[in-house]
Write a structure and sequence with these properties.
The protein is an alpha+beta fold and about 850 residues long. It is built from 28 helices and 28 strands. About 45% of the residues lie in helices and about 20% in strands. A hairpin with a 4-residue loop joins strand 18 and strand 19.
């Protein structure tokens, strides 16, 4: 039988053959505490009973299970030899009856990679914490099942746990005689079942809603985290956003929340942002803030809370049939997260963040060689794992934003309501949603779907302005371009805004909504308008496109970008300028100059932090090598200047402090960081809390200004899981051949580190200022990655392949080495090749950007 990588064809064959009536899963996790006996991995007992039907009696199929060993297998009362039917990832099932009962007793392994049942030991107090994470197909690491989204079933879980622990699952639970038993779930897919267990800190609340028919819905709410994070846990704000979201979705979806309770667990060493397990949502614990953060962080957390809540309907209630239609849950949740954020919470600038940050992710992904339509061709589980990307999430959400503009908000929401009621607890494909939207909007959705969902690539829109003899607009057109590799010119519903400078402000004085089709569209309604200083196509961010500027508009922005009064328009201008920098149309030095001149006037904290990230990237990747050091020093000087200029104690001051630490370049910069840590120097209003201390220590470590003993003493100040991650990153950042060799060996040659420590080590390993020091690892990288991919879990392998690619060795030689590996490894796993191709494209883009920056000298 094939191995772990289930194919789409296999899943379709199995779905055509089987129907699952229910699961009973019994886990014994008492082995999570205490010493391990024997040489193998730490394991727990998992007993699964599956009742299912087969519409072709006598046929054969298989169940999924990844486990070190299987004790017993019984099919319809007939004992099977585990050695004969279990191959390490599948259990062969032959001669099936019409009605079947499969019982599997296995020893499953605790995870240290965040996949399956993850076990974490808190270094602060030695407590053990467990949680599960399954998407797309890791439930089989915990219990035997049919691991594909379209074989839904109800589940009953019971868990035996160490004394003093609490256990949570999707349904409400009760403890009796040392066993936690949970209410049967609604029919759901394997990948959204969940167990969380340990001595977690748990806070409760409740939500109630009375509907128009007089019925009342009551939902118990819970929020939990490790005990060590309890002093920092602002559960009341999590509950506030949760209640606001539930109100919003009840108002707009007309389908009551269907899964009983609503717990939210913030768990350690989590690979994702969050996971939408119904009744038991899991989040990465970094959403609990140990130090002062900006409002952008709170907004980001609220968006994720609402994103996961939207999944209760888009994804959990109605689930895609196979991972091809992953967009049916992720694109909708991403869109609804911001839609509800702005509609229900205090974060009214959510669409600005979406335009500036979320779309940047999509634009990058859509220009990679691995770009794909929103509805992707997912051949197997490895493909599925990699398609949780900027296309599926952010481009899909952007396309839905365009769809709302196309069909109207009410038609869109009514289509969703019909979709939920028609397919509740079922599985769907693209056509199921489109048919509902056709009914409510009266529009033919097939052409829209072909253009926006079934083709890849991003269009670029550029204004073309012709002025008449009277100085007014004679003709304004919008030019549309597409990449040669993806030549589709799409229909766009856009707003075109005309702006002019007056009294020191750059403000809009005319706006027209229009449909753009083909290579050139004339905007007739703007003929006769006063001559603009700036034309902003895609004003108000109605469509998904790259925005370009005509020469006059670009010249205006060079002098007056900070004077754009509308925050969304200003964010769109920044985003367009960054896109031009990445496309080698604007020299990196020009983008950095714009940041230095105008970022200090940026009112939006989320936009400011995005500008900081882009400016760093401009220096690291797109600056001409001969100018890189000088540009970096200018950026650090500007950051230091703005740090002192920002209002004392403000979130802008905090953002500039973190940016200054990341960009520190001169001896005086590092001296100031050391003085701020020692308390011998201060910046008025700046609280150097523990998180900020670590932010200051990393550049000092990379500089060689602090040693291992200093970092050890800092860990003693912050002897927590978070502190340990920070220390590991700082240790790996030190400029020493021995340090780099040790970090490489820990990540590449050993599997002793947990997923979080692998991430931290990789983050510290590659420092912009240490390009020569880490240059020898480029050759080692290409020699190791196929072995790593074969031997490690896919999550760890992805960390290694992406994180250790020699992206700082920016030369034709590195590009040639990448091409040589690709040419000589044509039979390597497609998912591995995709990751290498993406990194190669980033490197090639960096070289083009550097050439553009260098040409500015000529």
């Amino acid at each position: 039988m094939p191995g772990e990588n289930l194919s789409r064809d296999e899943a379709r064959e199995r779905a055509a053959l089987l129907r699952v009536d229910g699961y009973e899963v019994s886990l014994d996790v008492r082995s999570a505490v205490g010493e391990v006996t024997g040489d193998g991995p730490r394991t727990f007992r998992s007993v699964t009973v599956i009742r299912f039907r087969c519409n072709e009696p006598g046929a054969s199929s298989f169940a999924d299970l990844i486990a070190p060993s299987v004790t017993a297998v019984s099919l319809n009362g007939r004992d099977l030899d585990p050695g004969e039917v279990f191959d390490g990832s599948r259990i062969l099932l032959e001669d099936l009856a019409a009605d079947n009962e499969l019982v599997v007793d296995a020893r499953c392994a605790y995870s240290r990679t965040g996949e399956g049942l993850h076990r974490f030991v808190d270094p602060e107090d030695g407590e053990v914490y467990l949680y599960t994470q399954y998407e797309p197909a890791d439930a089989r690491r915990v219990f035997a099942n049919f691991e594909q989204p379209d074989l839904k079933a109800p589940y009953r879980f019971e868990v035996r746990a160490p004394e003093g622990w609490t256990v949570w699952s999707n349904g409400a639970g009760e403890q009796a005689d040392g066993v936690w038993r949970f209410a049967e779930t609604k029919p759901i897919s394997t990948y959204i079942t969940c167990v969380v267990a340990g001595p977690y800190h748990y806070v409760t609340d409740s939500y109630a809603r009375t509907f128009a028919d007089g019925t009342t819905l009551e939902i118990p709410l819970g929020a939990l985290c490790r005990k060590g994070l309890a002093p920092h846990f602002d559960a009341e704000d999590v509950f506030l956003v949760t209640k606001q979201g539930l109100d919003f979705f009840h108002d707009h979806f007309d389908y009551p929340y269907p899964f009983g309770k609503y717990d939210q667990a913030f768990v350690p060493e989590y690979n994702l942002g969050a996971m939408e397990n119904p009744g038991m949502v899991t989040f990465r614990e970094e959403f609990i803030f140990r130090g002062k953060v900006t409002q952008a962080s709170y907004e980001g957390r609220a968006t994720v809370v609402l994103h996961e809540m939207a999944h209760m309907w888009f994804g959990d209630l109605v689930t895609m049939e196979w991972w091809d239609d992953l967009w049916l849950k992720e694109s909708f949740a991403d869109f609804m997260g911001t839609f509800s954020l702005v509609g229900a919470t205090r974060f009214q600038d959510g669409w600005i963040t979406f335009a500036n940050r979320r779309k940047a992710w999509a634009y990058r992904a859509d220009q990679l060689p691995s770009t794909h339509p929103v509805t992707a061709d997912i051949r197997d589980l490895q493909d599925a794992k990699l398609n949780f990307d900027g296309i599926t999430y952010a481009k899909g959400a952007s396309v839905l934003k365009q769809l709302v503009a196309y069909v109207g908000e009410e038609a869109f929401l009514e289509g969703a309501r019909r979709y939920f009621k028609r397919h509740a607890y079922g599985n769907t494909r693209l056509g199921d949603l489109l048919s509902a939207l056709e009914e409510t909007s009266g529009r033919d959705m097939s052409a829209w779907a072909r253009s926006w969902l079934q083709t890849a690539g991003v269009n670029a829109l550029t204004p073309q302005v012709l002025l008449g003899a009277d100085g007014r607009v004679e003709e304004l057109a919008v030019l549309q371009e597409a990449a040669e590799s993806h030549p589709e010119l799409r229909p766009h519903r856009i707003a075109v805004g005309l702006y002019r400078v007056a009294d020191g402000a750059l403000e809009r004085y005319a706006r027209v909504e229009t449909d753009v089709e083909g290579a050139r569209t004339v905007v007739a309604d703007l003929a006769g308008a006063d001559a603009p200083d700036l034309v902003l196509v895609n004003d108000d961010d109605l469509t998904y496109c790259k925005t370009r500027f005509d020469a006059t508009s670009l010249a205006t922005l060079r002098e007056h970008l900070g004077a754009v009064t509308d925050p969304l328009a200003r964010a769109l201008c920044w985003s367009a300028l960054w896109g031009m920098t990445r496309d080698a149309l604007l020299p990196a030095r020009d983008f950095v100059d714009l940041v230095l001149r105008f970022a200090g006037r940026e009112s939006g904290i989320g936009v400011l932090q995005m500008l900081h990230a882009w400016a760093e990237s401009a220096v690291t990747h797109y600056s001409a090598p001969a100018r890189r050091e000088a540009t970096a020093r200018l950026l650090a000087e500007g950051a230091r200047r703005e740090l002192y200029a920002a209002p004392a104690g403000s979130e802008h001051q905090l953002a500039w402090a973190r940016f200054f630490a990341r960009t520190a370049a001169a001896e005086a910069d590092f001296a100031l960081l050391g003085e701020l840590l020692a308390g011998t120097s201060t910046v008025e209003g700046l609280d150097v809390d523990q998180e900020l201390r670590w932010a200051f220590l990393e550049p000092l470590a990379a500089r060689g200004a602090v040693d291992e003993a200093t970092l050890t003493r800092e860990l003693a100040r912050d002897d927590t899981a978070s502190g340990k991650r920070h220390q590991v990153r700082c240790l790996a950042a030190r400029p020493s051949e021995a340090v780099k060799a040790q970090a490489w060996a820990q990540v590449v040659e050993s599997d002793a580190l947990s997923n979080a420590m692998v991430e931290a080590t990789i983050a510290g390993f590659a420092q912009d200022t240490q390009r020569e020091l880490i240059a020898p690892y480029a050759q080692k990288y290409f020699a190791a990655i196929e072995r790593v991919w074969d031997e490690r879990s896919i999550q760890i392998a992805m960390h290694v392949v992406q994180g250790l690619f020699p992206s700082l060795q920016q030369s034709r030689a590195t590009l040639d080495a990448t091409d040589a590996w690709l040419d000589s490894h044509k039979e390597a796993a497609p998912a591995l090749r995709r990751l290498v191709l993406e990194s190669r494209d980033d490197l090639a883009r960096a070289l083009r950007g550097q050439a553009c920056d260098e040409a500015a000298d000529q």
